[in-house]
Amino acid sequence: MKFLFRTFFKTLRLVLGPVLLLKERLTAPQGLVRTPEAQQAVDRQCRDLALYQFRICPFCIKVRQEMRRLALDIELRDAQHDAVHREALLAGGGRAMVPCLQICDAQGNSRWLYESGDIVAYLRERFGS
After folding, report:
1. Beta-strand pair 100-104/49-53
2. 37 Cβ partners below 8 Å, 6+ apart?
3. 97 in a domain, yes or no?
4. Residues 86, 96: contact at Cβ < 8 Å?
5. Which residues pair with 52 in a beta bridge?
6. pLDDT tens column, 51-91
7. Residue 103 maps to which CATH number?
8. What is the pTM of this model?
9. CA–CA separation, 34 vs 69, rounded Å?
10. Domain span at residue 92?
């Protein structure tokens, strides 16, 4: 019975995954337009951020869409297929749950923000116009 459930959900992911990625590409929002100086300042701030994500996770897609809307160049780290990133997420954040935004400060301390809604709210507050 366990085998049937695993097979069903694996098949479902294989079928829906490409559909979700196509929808993400087709509905990609226009990026926020800033002056070149303002965009450079935002890009510098984004160097302290990293998004741990799965490629076909709908919640991760939601965060990536917001990143595009706000024109943010945040490093994406694949916690599904990259064991190093998955271990870093577990060690730093304590959970292998995605999406998770790692926020580093000037002293090198990291804050780990889970939940797509919380991440979107943080990004809008910090980088929104």
Report:
1. antiparallel
2. none
3. yes
4. yes
5. 77, 100
6. 999 999 999 999 999 999 999 999 999 999 999 999 999 99
7. 3.40.30.10
8. 0.87
9. 12
10. 35-127
